[in-house]
């Protein structure tokens, strides 16, 4: 395992929890410049502008209103209102509701109140239900993001409940967790849409693979389970090893272009996104927007030394 993986990544993710560092980073004008590389603006019109450009280039979207670890019922309610307004904005685009819906929103249950000390899980369920009902009305999909491993049981329980009413609801599973192959078996058998990613949090060895090669191996095992199942696999990765493995797996399990999709983050490997879309695949781009960008931004820095260097260079060069 490289020094960045072993030391740099955990240190950056730990620093992300320091409120002082957060305030400092948020105040630096240069941060904004670097943040703009990963985030599609702060407002719904900003997000819709990016959605328009991506749809014009033949890509699908999933839009995420940034925010996590909400600490009050009112903040959770504000997040719900933002999603309802976002879904209204997406509805006005009028993209056709096909078997594979081009428009989707992604949400974090912690932004909907999951961690609130009183009735957090119930509040998050009800808030997510409100958003799903609106998505159904406008013909969009919803996928629930995966957060740190202490939330996985609660998140999957909420998703199972919601899926009894909204069977198109998807969820994210993280290949770095030891438990995920079993979770893939369960959800693949129930016909769910599953977004498989490697995982972006700093997890202990007791619950997660920590070596990059082990994570990739686990990813490929999980993807095989999803491809073999009756659900809809969403291959969320920028890793060429994973992307190159997909066509053979799809062929083996008789899946055509409507039977799975590639997914990548906004502005990461953009040329590869276009190449896959131009070749006739469904490619969905995860488009984050909003002013609560700090957690998302730090996870992107922690993923790749080049991103951190880009940020540090911009800091060093500021006048
Ligand atoms: C659509 C989508 C949704 C996601 N949702 C979640 C979630 O809910 N929960 C969660 O824990 N994680 C989520 N992630 C993040 C994911 O877990 C990984 O942290 C991230 O995708 C990096 O892993 P990778 O598979 O791309 O492979 P890596 O091995 O990390 O990267 C492979 C290559 O991709 C490129 N690349 C990867 N990351 C970056 C970057 N930040 N900047 C520039 N280039 C990069 C580089 O060329 C790199 O060499 C999501 C990712 C995607 C694509």
Structure description:
The chain has about 325 residues and is α/β, with parallel strands linked by helices. The protein is built from 13 helices and eight strands. Strands 1-2-3-4-5-6-7-8 form an eight-stranded parallel β-barrel, surrounded by eight helices. Helix 12 crosses helix 13. The longest helix has 21 residues, at about 75-95. The two termini are about 35 Å apart. About 40% of the residues are buried. The chain binds flavin-adenine dinucleotide. Flavin-adenine dinucleotide binds near residues 146 and 200.
Query: How large is the radius of gyration?
Result: 19 Å
The arrangement of helices and strands along the chain is HHHHEHEHEHEHEHEHEHEHH
Any low-confidence stretches, pLDDT <50, length ≥5? Answer: none
Question: Which compounds are bound in this model?
Answer: flavin-adenine dinucleotide
Strand arrangement across the biggest beta sheet:
1-2-3-4-5-6-7-8
Secondary structure tally, helices: 13
Distance between the termini: 37 Å
Proportion of residues in extended strands = 5-15%
- Strand element count: 8
**Helix- and strand-based class?**
alpha/beta
Q: Whole-number average pLDDT?
A: 92
Kindly state the percentage of residues in helix.
40-55%
Q: Sheet bearing the most strands, described?
A: 8 strands, parallel, barrel
Shape assignment: globular
